[in-house]
Structure formats: C-alpha cells, structure tokens
C-alpha cells in the first residue's frame, strides 16, 4: 500500500524539501501541501491522507489547533509534528491535542520516511529516547493528576494498567511481551482494549494519558 501524505509548513523550502524526499520513496506519495493550519485542515478533509507532516508555528492557524481540528473531525490521518527543537513545550501540547508523534526538521531522508511509516502503522511513540524525555519534562507542568483522567484508570484491568505503563516508557509490543513473558499477540490485544476503554487514538495518546494520570512519575 502507498502511504498518502500531506505536508503542512509555512516555509516553501521545507515543504518542497520534504515533498522531494518523500516522493523518492516507492511506497510514499505526497498528495498535497498546506501553507498554514487552516489549509491543512481543509486538505485533510479533501484528500484524506494517511499522514500529515504538521509544522507547529504557522500563521492563520497553528499546528496545535489544526491537529485538534483534524482529530476532532474523526479523520483517519495521523499527525506527525515537525519541530526544530527536541525540547519544545508546544510539541507536548500537540501530543495532547492528538498528534501521533514528532520529528525534528533536521532528520535524514531515511528517518523521515521511517517516521511516516511508523506513524501510518500506528506504532508511535517516535524516537522513544527523545519523545519520552520530552513528555516527561512537560508532564511536570501538571502538579496533580487530572481528575477525569485518573478516574478512567479504574476502567482498566491490572494487566492493562501494567501494559499502559510500559507503553509510556517507550517499549514496543515485542519488548512488552518479552518483559511480561507472554505472546506479542496477547499484548496487541491488551493495547487495543486499552485504547478502546480510554477512548484514545494510538500509543502516543496512551503514553500522554499515563503521565497525566501519574501512572508514570516524571523524573
């Protein structure tokens, strides 16, 4: 299957650069570009891409608000946030808004393509060592668990809670299966049930939930 991508960035050189790099991949097609968040929302509705490369700082509508609108519209598109800094408070806000992960703008062509494929497959977090550090850093902004978030933890079984904590620590399904000494298919089932019970889109949202519910303590 070909992964259909929309690139949203207010800098033409960035849009064209990413489009050229991704267009050279046999299984990725750039189907559209957007110069700001408002246009990105319209492009997603029109083109129904699989992945949106979303810059955060854009005129008219920023990437956070655009991500929130795209997620609220029930679009199938996964949002991959583009940022210049690996510790950017706006990235955490974008993850909370529904983004599936983030990527530094100085990523190589291979890293860019791999990130698009990972997000399209629903296998976020991206770059666990960096993303986990970012989430941990900005989860500190909340001194106490959000009441609705904490209450929803009670909907999970003990094993599902355990899996959720490991997701937040950046482990893949295979790594979680090895840690718990169960089949990977069992972990996939647990992850699916966790997302359904908590009303979350993907693993990145699950990780943010775990931090906000204080299942994982920032440090």
TrEMBL record:
SMART domains: HTH_LUXR, REC
GO MF assignments: DNA binding
InterPro entries, per the entry: CheY-like_superfamily, NreC/VraR/RcsB-like_REC, Sig_transdc_resp-reg_C-effctor, Sig_transdc_resp-reg_receiver, Tscrpt_reg_LuxR_C, WalR-like
Residue ranges annotated for the HTH luxR-type domain, each copy included: 149-214
An individual GO BP term: regulation of DNA-templated transcription
Superkingdom field: Bacteria
Record SUPFAM superfamilies: C-terminal effector domain of the bipartite response regulators (SSF46894), CheY-like (SSF52172)
Domain Response regulatory: 4-120
Keywords assigned: DNA-binding, Phosphoprotein, Transcription, Transcription regulation
Pfam families to which the protein is assigned, alphabetical: GerE, Response_reg
4-aspartylphosphate PTM sites in chain numbering: 55
Protein name: Response regulator transcription factor
